[in-house]
Amino acid sequence: MISNFLFIGHRGTRINTDENTISAFNKALEYGANYVELDVRKTKDGKLVILHDSTIDRTTNGSGLLNEYTLTEIRKFKTKIQHFEIPLLTEVLNALKEKIKFMIELKETNLLEDLSKFIGKNDILDECIISGRILTELLEFKMIYPQRKICYNITKGQGLSFNKFMNLGKNEINRLNFDLISLHSSLISQDFIELCHKNDIKSLSWDFLTYDNPLQKIKSLINLGIDGILFDNHNYIPQIKRWRNRP
User: Fold this and answer.
1) Residue 79, CB half-sphere, CA atoms under 13 Å: how many?
2) What is the pTM of this model?
3) Residues 6+ apart with CB under 8 A from 30
4) Could you tell me which of 10, 86, 101 has the C-alpha nearest to residue 42?
5) CATH number for the domain including 12?
6) Where are the beta strands (DSSP E) in 6-148?
7) Residue 203: beta bridge partners?
8) What is the gyration radius of the CA atoms in the chain, in angstroms?
9) pLDDT of residue 3
10) How far is CA 207 from each of CA 72, 155, 204, 216, rounded to the nearest angstrom?
11) How far apart are CA 126 and CA 84, in angstroms?
């Protein structure tokens, strides 16, 4: 599995660049990511845009819930660092398709139908991992597209808790048909990684900004056998590649 290690730009990057913007995704690509993780939500008038939070307060000069604004209204606000507009999913696709693969995180309910139509229309099924915390929606997507990959973000997952997953038998796990499971970096253990591998599931980890030495934490998880990292800091991607390739 190590040869297929996933270098994922978490929201592109979260360092010195506005997260979840084309600039952030390009930075991850430039520094060696093979996937970018992006968060999808819907505006009041049903447009698919890229934003992590339910509100626009943290990342833009505006305030309020995203889903209370139309696309035209939301375009009036700009991101705090580089003063970009909140991008449409289609804009990100047009900028990055065939350059990098995508991990698309469903950040709210009732996105599945719109997203399924979108990725089918744009012929990116083979380029995507669909991720989320709502188990039923992920499994529904898998039923529609059985050959496509899904990633369950189990840390705050709805439908299957981390503790329950750790106590499932092989037959129960196989029925879930996961391809990947994403878990917060503070919860990763050897037992978790081994359980994933025994069931042909790739294990991913995220959120490294709060550590005194994030690079050391990332290395420790790779030594445990983790299959991929969602990098908050794009600068760590080439450093980890050099470290893994050392004699």
Assistant:
1) 20
2) 0.96
3) 234
4) 86
5) 3.20.20.190
6) 6-10, 35-42, 48-50, 101-106, 128-132
7) 181
8) 18
9) 57
10) 32, 11, 11, 13
11) 29
Question: What per-residue confidence (pLDDT) applies to 118?
Answer: 87
CB 140 within 8 A of CB 159: no
Q: How far is C-alpha 167 from the chain's CA centre?
A: 25
Contacts made by residues 90-93, CB under 8 angstroms, sequence distance 24+: 90/48, 90/118, 90/122, 91/22, 92/22, 92/25, 92/38, 92/50, 93/122, 93/124
Question: Which strand (E) or helix (H) includes residue 203?
Answer: strand 202-206
- Name the more confident of 228 and 177: 228
60-96 tens-digit pLDDT: 999 999 999 999 999 999 999 999 999 999 999 999 9
> Can you say whether the dihedral through the CA atoms of 170, 175, 181, 183 is positive or negative?
negative
Tokens describing residue 36: 């970018």
**Mean pLDDT computed over 1-21:** 90
Question: The tokens of 203 are what?
Answer: 């294990």
Q: Distance between CA atoms of 16 and 10, rounded to whole angstroms?
A: 13
User: Which tokens go with 247?
Assistant: 């004699």
Q: Please give the tally of structural domains in the chain.
A: 1
* Structural domain boundaries enclosing 189: 2-244
| Spatial separation of the C-alpha atoms in residues 27 and 231, rounded to whole Å | 12
Interhelix angle 89-96/22-30, rounded to 10 degrees, is 30
β-strand pairing of 48-50 with 35-42:
antiparallel
Helix (H, G, I), strand (E, B) or coil at 112: helix
